[in-house]
């Protein structure tokens, strides 16, 4: 799958959480907007097969034709009803489970069934110590120097395709993203965390290759629609900011 889509051109991804509540009609309205390049289904807490399949069915029923990706955080919730998978590896995890342990377990359990062309690895650096993801992975919060070193590590040592700068729940430091952008040689940069307005989407959209919006969908769907509307009208991510 991944070799057939221009995922490096994705500007905005929506991340839908099976554990979060939203009215179905509002979600379907959001999914009908044209400024969405891909939808990720995933989250950190209470992800089950049941709530994942319910959400996937709603997305399949909506007026959305783009890529539908599952970000795997629970082995038992892996679904076949998606186009592809993003597999997180948390570089700054304080426990090896989130860097290597869960992955070994998963490969031993499902290895014979996995079509690896459907899998893309994301190297996470979790920067907000108050996020559920940070607590779950016992993340060792990086400073600016650490973050830049992680970038070099994944480009030159591990050769991973995506650096995911994860501020989940909090707006990050644009200066850090600027430094990553200036140094970047190979790894595509995902930024996610606290995007709640058009100026914030523009700012992080100009620094990261792809921005991910999560909580806003549930907290202020109207604001998300403003961002998507603005993007469709101005094509700001593709034209103004991608150089
Ligand atoms: C059909 C078939 C067999 C398909 C194959 C599927 C496949 C590719 C299997 C791979 C096998 C494998 C290697 C499995 C391991 C899976 C696994 C459990 C890996 C660990 C993943 C991981 C490191 C999770 C940690 C948490 C994390 C980074 C989650 C990502 C999502 C995230 C950060 C959400 C935001 O959460 P947050 O905002 O903090 O919290 P809220 O939910 O409260 O908002
Ligand atoms: O929920 P928010 O803060 O938008 O963050 C998006 C995403 O990076 C979460 O994994
Ligand atoms: Mg979240």
Automatic annotation (TrEMBL):
<dbReference type="InterPro" id="IPR038597">
    <property type="entry name" value="GGGP/HepGP_synthase_sf"/>
</dbReference>
<keyword id="KW-0460">Magnesium</keyword>
<dbReference type="InterPro" id="IPR008205">
    <property type="entry name" value="GGGP_HepGP_synthase"/>
</dbReference>
<dbReference type="GO" id="GO:0016740">
    <property type="term" value="F:transferase activity"/>
</dbReference>
<keyword id="KW-0808">Transferase</keyword>
<protein>
    <submittedName>
        <fullName>Heptaprenylglyceryl phosphate synthase</fullName>
        <ecNumber>2.5.1.n9</ecNumber>
    </submittedName>
</protein>
<keyword id="KW-0479">Metal-binding</keyword>
<keyword id="KW-1208">Phospholipid metabolism</keyword>
<keyword id="KW-0444">Lipid biosynthesis</keyword>
<keyword id="KW-0594">Phospholipid biosynthesis</keyword>
<dbReference type="Pfam" id="PF01884">
    <property type="entry name" value="PcrB"/>
</dbReference>
<dbReference type="InterPro" id="IPR039074">
    <property type="entry name" value="GGGP/HepGP_synthase_I"/>
</dbReference>
<keyword id="KW-0443">Lipid metabolism</keyword>
